[in-house]
């Protein structure tokens, strides 16, 4: 079992390293559960003395230094597609 886990970790590291060449940098995004409470009725602070331990890793997001010349609208069109964006424009406002 340990060998399988080691293989999966090694394989995932190799996959990330090959994909890392295509991006300029990565955001390490962390989330503090207390910030969710802040949207409701106050804020929930961690009970322990180490608040950093209460943070969870939300993800490692790849990014480019620039949008590769497409601009903001071009990026949205590339990610969502023209058909989806045209239906969004027809809907009412919230």
Automatic annotation (TrEMBL):
UniProt-listed Pfam families: Ribonuclease_T2 (PF00445)
Annotated keywords: Signal
GO molecular function: ribonuclease T2 activity; RNA binding
Residues annotated as signal peptide: 1-19
Domain of life: Eukaryota
Family designation: Belongs to the RNase T2 family.
Entry-linked PANTHER family: OS07G0630400 PROTEIN, RIBONUCLEASE T2
Protein name: Uncharacterized protein
